[in-house]
Amino acid sequence: MTKTLHGTVHGRTIELDEDLGVAEGQEVEVQVTLVQPARRWGEGILRSAGGWADYPEMDAIMEKIHQERRLERNPQSVDE
Q1: Is residue 76 scored above 80 in pLDDT?
Q2: Whole-angstrom Cα distance, residue 10 to residue 7?
Q3: Which has the closest alpha carbon to 21: 49, 2, 45?
Q4: CA angle 39, 40, 45 (to 5 degrees)
Q5: Which of 16, 43, 75, 80 is placed for a possible disulfide with 7 were both Cys, Cβ 3.0 to 4.6 Å?
Q6: What is the DSSP string of 15-79?
Q7: Is 7 exposed, middle or buried (0-12, 13-18, 19+ CB in 10 A)?
Q8: 14-66, pLDDT tens digit by residue?
Q9: Is the pTM above the cut of 0.85?
Q10: How far apart are CA 46 and CA 50, in angstroms?
Q11: Mean pLDDT over residues 63-73, rounded?
Q12: Contact status, residue 49 vs residue 43, Cβ threshold 8 Å
């Protein structure tokens, strides 16, 4: 019999989400595949927050990008 079930690891114990349907004490062979957790929208940017903290030149770079974008939208809106 081959069956795919989901479960959660607790130390050396795997708690299954449903009954396996085999007799107590039955020896089984286990093959484990890790399930990647579903990520919520916006989680990536939250995890990357502070990634440029050690680069003081990033303020100037971001300001330049901001000014270039403003210029693209409205060439008269940039004060230089």
Answers
A1: no
A2: 10
A3: 2
A4: 90
A5: 16
A6: EESS---S-TT--------PPPPPPPTTHHHHHHTTTTTT-TTHHHHHHHHHHHHHHHH-TTS--
A7: middle
A8: 999 999 899 999 999 999 999 888 888 888 887 787 777 788 888 899 899 99
A9: no
A10: 9
A11: 88
A12: no
Residue indicated by tokens 């989901």:
6
Amino acid at 28: V
pLDDT for residue 79: 55
Query: Do strands 7-10 and 13-16 pair parallel, antiparallel, or not at all (unpaired)?
Result: antiparallel
Q: What's the one-letter identity of residue 64?
A: K
Give pLDDT tens digits for 2-11.
Answer: 889 999 999 9
